[in-house]
Amino acid sequence: MSKLPKEYQFLDLSDYGRPVAKVIAKSLKNTSITPIDVTLAFIISGLLGVYFIFENHYFFAAFFIIFKSILDAADGELARIKDTPSYTGRFFDSIADIILNFIIIISIWQLTNIHIGFALLAFFGIQLQGTLYNYYYVILRNRFNGDTTSRVFEDTTPIALKGETQKSVNILFGIYKKLYGVFDEIIYALDRNAPNGKPLPNWLMSCISTFGLGFQLLIISALLILDLKEIIIPFFIMYSGLIFVYILIRRIFFS
User: Distance (Å, rounded) from C-alpha 220 to C-alpha 237?
Assistant: First the structure.
């Protein structure tokens, strides 16, 4: 099932792994494997990607990084198939993503002559990109499809859903806020009126979807395979400039 009605569906360039993710989720439907188990699997896949980066086996590094992206979609698909949505899974997934992103960028930095400050700036830019994309996407989902586990503003601890404990939700939400809070606040400060604006057209959402984690990991993988690891950090610093371009377009044409 799509997260959006047909008329608001757009080509999500960061979601290329969804077809394979659906196959994986369907194959696990009648097993005891949970969405959390799949999240743990994508953590392992991401760490294997990091290991092969250090070993200079960039093809294998790219394989496991992209496989991590596929599994990142599969855990949510499995939750929908089994009808077991949870805030525990939602926040655990996001926490794992940001930690793996940091490890991947630092791993690439250690193999280059780039200053650590630029590596941290690239990581910051990657997170801001993803936050802007999620911000606009969740606004659409909340407006047209009544999504329950993703909220436009993650500012209060949600009430635990069936099958999870409030304690686990409280703990994971607290960690989530510490890791993502600054990025959420920056994007909200830059475009606080987005929830009240006109729906963004499909072509613009497709452009912004290049800020999604899946597309970011695809770019990293491609540059690794091409042995252009020195370009990865500068690329994401420069690409982050489009954040302001997209916000300006929304504020001028879709307020």
Answer: 13
CB 25 within 8 A of CB 74: yes
Whether the predicted pLDDT of 21 surpasses 90:
yes
Q: Are 114 and 232 in contact (CB under 8 A)?
A: no
User: How many angstroms separate the CA atoms of 59 and 221, rounded?
Assistant: 8
Number of neighbouring beta carbons within 10 Å of residue 36: 18
Residue 114 has pLDDT above 70, yes or no: yes
Tally of domains in the chain: 1
- Other Cβ atoms less than 10 A from the Cβ of 222: the count is 13
In a domain, 181, yes or no: yes
Cα–Cα distance, 244 to 222 (Å, whole number): 25
Q: How does pLDDT run across 39-88, given as a tens digit for each residue?
A: 999 999 999 999 999 999 999 999 999 999 999 999 999 999 999 989 99
* Both tokens assigned to 153: 């503003």
Say which residue the tokens 């607290």 belong to. 174
CATH code for the domain of 220: 1.20.120.1760
**Location of structure tokens 């409280």:** 170
